[in-house]
Design goal:
Structural class: alpha/beta
Number of strands: 13
Helix content: 10-25%
Number of helices: 6
Strand content: 15-25%
Order of helices and strands: EHEHEHHEEEHEEEEEEEH
């Protein structure tokens, strides 16, 4: 158990960040029950650890920022994962979703190298899709198996996708419903189009768009009149860009945004 300040004893109600590495100990589970923890970071915690945490969070739903990185989630090899899916048993998807359902006030979620295939899929734990009504920031990176994620989250203001090889994810980006999105950052994706001439991607509040290492991207068609900052690096195949933003157009004309 490793609080960010390096000491269990100093973690009090005034310390709002808790970092757990490896199997969580009973003391840390008790901490989650009794302390107002706002930021929770989890590293290499397996399936049983996630379930203990989920149980503890039922008594403490104050978590606003959840950061999961490089977690094993109880499936050390693809054979074990395939068997669990075949028998409709516990999967990384269901374990993560079980944890997220306890975080009713979650405002920021970051997943890095977690072996999930879906995020927010309907029917994993109930008949309804996962709803995170307060989520404002979502970062997904190095998710090799991910094919679906929260695409209907109108209150989201920041989205970052990094190194997700699924073409399905890239295709879904043209259908996202993020009407409050202020910043969109896309990097190392097999993205070919962002929006299309027949159905523009409507992002009315978008002010910042960052595109990096998108070698297949050829067309961008957005309705983003508030766009003020446009950063593009290593998008060599890009032929067409339409944002309906006069400011972005002026930057492009001057070569500043490139």
């Amino acid at each position: 158990v490793t609080p960010l300040n390096g000491s269990d004893e100093s973690l009090t109600s005034e310390k709002s960040t808790l970092s757990l590495v490896g199997e969580p100990y009973l003391a840390s589970i008790q901490t989650l029950k009794n302390v107002d923890v706002r930021t929770l970071e989890l590293r290499n915690i397996n399936e049983s650890g996630f379930r203990l945490l989920s149980f503890a969070l039922r008594a403490n739903n104050t978590i606003a920022h959840l950061d999961l990185r490089y977690n094993k989630i109880g499936f050390p090899d693809t054979k074990a994962l395939a068997e669990a899916e075949k028998t409709k048993g516990t999967t990384p998807d269901s374990v993560v979703e079980e944890l997220l359902t306890q975080c009713e006030r979650l405002a920021a979620l970051s997943l890095d190298a977690v072996p999930i295939t879906t995020l927010g899929k309907s029917g994993l734990l109930s008949a309804s899709p996962l709803i995170l009504p307060h989520l404002r920031s979502l970062t997904l990176q190095n998710l090799d198996k991910l094919t679906q994620f929260l695409s209907q989250t109108p209150q989201l203001t920041e989205l970052q996708l990094v190194n997700i090889p699924s073409e399905n994810i890239s295709a879904r980006l043209s259908n996202i419903n993020y009407s409050a999105l202020d910043k969109l950052s896309l990097s190392s994706l097999p993205l070919k189009q962002l929006g299309n001439p027949k159905a523009r991607l409507i992002l009315p509040q978008l002010t910042t768009l960052v595109l990096e290492d998108l070698p297949q991207l050829t067309d961008i068609t957005l309705q983003a009149s508030q766009l003020r900052q446009l950063e593009m690096r290593h998008c060599d195949a890009l032929d067409s860009l339409e944002t309906q933003s006069d400011h972005a157009r002026r930057l492009l004309d001057k070569g500043i945004a490139l």
